[in-house]
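Researcher: Here's the sequence for the chain we discussed earlier.
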Amino acid sequence: MLSKNILFKNFKKAKVSKKISLNLKKLLFKKNQILFSLSNEYKDKYNIKKIKKLKRNINTRVIGMGGSILGSKAIYSFLRTLTSKNFSFFDNLDSNLKPDKKKYLNLVISKSGNTLETISNFNILFKKKDENCFLTENKKNELFLLAEKLKSDVIHHNNFIGGRYSVLSEVGMLPAELMGFNPKKFRQLNNLIKNKKFINSLVANVNSIISLSKNKFNSIILNYDPKSEDFLEWYKQLAAESLGKKNKGFLPVISNMPKDNHSVMQFYLDGPKKKFFHIFFFKR
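Model: Thanks. This is the structure I predict for it:
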């Protein structure tokens, strides 16, 4: 039975704002260092010979927080069946965490190099027989000093790329390459901005979100694709950190379906009208 509280007008296509369209197109086509990292012209700072050496490791642990790990975690969970490598991700504190007997490549990522949770997890998991690679800014921070002490490889994190935008820089592409994937196939901005359908779709989507979110503060993502949960976790950070400023923005909430139909759907339908919805699924 349909609820009277579902506002079908929200599903209508919002009128595209010329201002939004113009601003987005200016942003896409002007020289921008962050956008440059999304293009196939971007050059990674890691040494290919060293990567071949690191690729020998079957078991890899990625240790980081937030944008330092969410992108690579999304790539791995989405493309898990296409790689023979075993990756595990440590992006939170766990009182039960302890090292095991296997040999690992520890890929430790923190832009500042001083992220307490990342350093703590590495110190707990570290074993002498492990191989370690650190990805951090070119500064004398805690991770840099630790890498020097362990005589481990250090790859420099570009200081102009914030963590949540770093998935297609070394932060996400180094793990992807270790999984056996080609970074060039991820960096498709050059092709996308030539595609009018993509540009028009991007403008329409941004315009719709702005239109739907007026006087609403919760963005509920109804997710019907289990493989996309980690991708949506990355989106959650991207939306919350980028837009949640100066008393503005909205709270992204991932709601996994159809499970949540039987727990929070009543609230969605008859609770406060301060939320808007996106239905997310992946067509295979």
